[in-house]
Amino acid sequence: MGYYAERVVPRIVNVACGVKAAGPLRRRVCEGLAGEVVEIGFGSGHNVPFYPAAVTGVTAIEPSDVGWRLAGERVRAASVPVRRAGLDGQSLPFQDDSFDAALSTWTLCTIPDAVAALREVRRVLRPGGTLHFLEHGLAPEEDENVRRWQRRLEPMEKRLFGGCHLTRPTVEMLTSAGFTITALDVFYEEGAPKFMGADSLGTALSP
């Protein structure tokens, strides 16, 4: 990774993902989390204030040292223990059935092999564990004009934002990894360009 990817992108993401409008969405996706949680793509910790009281601990998977440092104040203020214990969502350093729940927010767009990462999440979840997800990706099928712009702009998006894809099909990836979708809301983020703000928010069950 070069200087831009290592030093600049985490700071851009910290600002972009810290906008006030994202707060209600983060609160929604964190609702119902309980027990020991693994959070992939922890970033700079913007979800920390929204962990419910039923969460007993959070294990953060975050490849960026800069991102983890930017999370420092939020981690110290957390109401539950938060520890960084992994760098790569595609290869989690935990035994099978280690966690009660998992959390992923605006993460699957940048992981090189997102389905492999989801399979890893499913592996470390206990049977019946839930993945709470909030991801942007491919626009709904009926919005072909938005999809066309997503395909055009994706190469630039990947260069500017650390490999971020605009066209990943979130639901299809989850089901391919063996999850069962139990709740789903598909919408465009208020105030965001449609090509960047086609979101899927919900929960998925591990068998």
Strand content: 25-35%
Total domain units = 1
**CATH top level?**
Alpha Beta
Q: Please, what is the CATH homologous superfamily? A: Vaccinia Virus protein VP39
Strand order of the largest sheet: 3-2-1-4-5-7-6
CATH topology: Rossmann fold
Strand element count: 7
- Judged by helices, strands and strand pairing, the structural class is alpha/beta
Low-confidence stretches are none
Shape: globular
Biggest β-sheet strands, sense, barrel: 7 strands, mixed
CATH architecture: 3-Layer(aba) Sandwich
Mean pLDDT: 95
Domain Methyltransferase type: 38-132
EC number: 2.1.1.-
Protein name: Class I SAM-dependent methyltransferase
InterPro entries: Methyltransf_11 (IPR013216), SAM-dependent_MTases_sf (IPR029063), Thiol_S-MT (IPR052356)
Account of the protein in words:
The protein has 207 residues and is α/β, with parallel strands linked by helices. The chain contains 7 helices and 7 strands, in the order ααββααββαβααββ. Strands 3-2-1-4-5-7-6 form a 7-stranded mixed sheet, sandwiched between helices. α5 links the parallel β4 and β5. One of its GO terms (biological process) is methylation. GO terms for molecular function: methyltransferase activity. Keywords: Methyltransferase, Transferase.
